[in-house]
Structure to design on (624 residues):
């Protein structure tokens, strides 16, 4: 029942996104709809709706514009990420960068972000302050990641800061605003925000694991890609021999990425990272304990369990 | 008196901008402050303050955060423009792109835009709807310009649409929000918005003229740069021989940009464009006639007259 309500609301988000990006500048409409159509898991809208319902919200349709705005922040960053990563495909589709070129990809990302702002403008400060804070953190996280990739240096603390800012902050904002709109009291808002934050951390760690061990067919993109930009570093920095030397010193005679992947898979680093994700998902579940029982809360519990098991 | 008040408020904008971009991600602080320090004419904050005062606002300090947010929109677009235009200098300084590289320039532009959003978040919908609308138009204008540059096609209508969206929309938003904050009634808000819109059009035409005939020393950047990206096209499209053939077919044996500049200077196109700017400035002045007399209104009048005479 909740599942169906949420899935219908997510369809409404997709329609909202399609319509909101319409412009008389055809290129912006086309490129925006292209990336929107490429889809994704719609995790952030899902969190908006579940938090809204768990907070006691009665009509999930009310939360559609907010959920669409949150998803569009994520979408905008994907367009810019693909420029910086020189990615040519995303979910089996050409990236905006590959299809329209760098200049228009940059402008499309900017456009999507201005559309987020336009969608959020009618809401008051209680929502916009939360959203703006998440957006700032997101760009800071992306920048830390790019700096780490460039320097080749990433320790555990840096990795945690990166995933907290680039992923968990927007997950948290989604739940916080959904809860607010659903009429939650402050304790409920905080509980749902904590849940979403930890869920975001677990989600990103699993994402980085899948980049290393995932099946390229299931993933719809080449695996190992994130290793070249330093994102898989959480797994990587767990991949040390017992004497402390890194398992990542790839032998020069083979493809270094393939060698790294192979060594990482064998090193046990992936298992350590997955354990860390499980612990974070557990912590997310504990935040739910403070909420009144509801079908939405059950769904959030299932979501936290599914996230650490996912294979794409 | 008004001049001094406004100049002090603009200094406060610079200080506000410097402080608001502070981040624990040092690169973002440094790159942001670098582009802010490169300065500019601060036309948009000036319009916020003058509209605020003309509307009867009593304490210009109240308008500083708004004025800073508007200027920061402009600043963010400069950072992204410089990536797309491969510009290495701006106002005699290295661009963010030249100094920090493309990836970090893209992220710095994104960061500045999230900071705009953060600064605007405490304001209500009456301000954010205006600002969001201007931001959307701005990106649309930039996209139309990039598309025109790519296709090599630009007619007079397209040029006018481009400058209306990429320049006049933010000028207009500045005056509109300044007027709102100053307590203007709807007629005054509309008069000040119309003034600023026409001023923006005139300003951009003169900018494009200066790109063609300006003194590189005074300008702090190479002249002719915009010709290569199609921005000088208003002047260019006036540059036709009486038989309708373009003056822009540069002889192959010399630097084509230099040849175009030389022919444009001789063709009378620059004079036609400047006349157009003068007419727009006149229309801006007529919008002021509906306002009650004030020192700020006199200053806005002087500004419209100065804009078409400026040489940098």
């Amino acid at each position: 029942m909740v599942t169906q309500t949420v899935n219908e609301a997510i369809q409404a988000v997709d329609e909202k996104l399609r319509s909101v990006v319409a412009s008389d500048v055809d290129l912006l409409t086309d490129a925006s709809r292209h990336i929107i159509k490429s889809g994704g898991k719609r995790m952030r809208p899902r969190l908006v709706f579940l938090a809204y319902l768990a907070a006691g919200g009665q009509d999930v349709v009310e939360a559609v514009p907010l959920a669409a705005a949150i998803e569009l922040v994520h979408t905008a960053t994907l367009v810019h990420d693909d420029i910086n990563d020189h990615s040519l495909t995303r979910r089996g589709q050409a990236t905006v960068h590959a299809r329209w070129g760098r200049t228009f990809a940059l402008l499309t990302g900017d456009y999507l972000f201005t559309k987020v702002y336009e969608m959020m403008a009618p809401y008051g400060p209680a929502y916009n302050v939360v959203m703006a804070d998440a957006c700032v953190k997101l760009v800071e996280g992306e920048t830390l990641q790019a700096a780490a990739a460039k320097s080749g240096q990433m320790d555990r603390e840096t990795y945690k800061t990166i995933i907290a800012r680039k992923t968990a902050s927007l997950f948290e904002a989604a739940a916080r605003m959904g809860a607010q709109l659903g009429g939650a009291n402050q304790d409920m808002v905080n509980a749902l925000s904590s849940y979403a934050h930890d869920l975001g951390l677990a989600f990103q760690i699993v994402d980085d694991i899948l980049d290393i061990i995932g099946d390229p067919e299931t993933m719809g993109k080449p695996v190992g890609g994130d290793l070249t930009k330093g994102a898989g570093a959480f797994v990587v920095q767990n991949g040390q021999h017992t004497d402390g030397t890194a398992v990542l010193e790839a032998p020069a005679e083979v493809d270094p990425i393939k060698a790294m992947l192979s060594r990482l898979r064998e090193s046990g680093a992936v298992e350590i990272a997955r354990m860390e994700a499980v612990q974070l998902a557990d912590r997310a579940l504990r935040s739910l304990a403070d909420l009144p029982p509801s079908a939405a809360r059950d769904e959030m519990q299932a979501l936290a369990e599914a996230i650490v098991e996912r294979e794409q």
Observations:
- Chain A has one domain: 2-299.
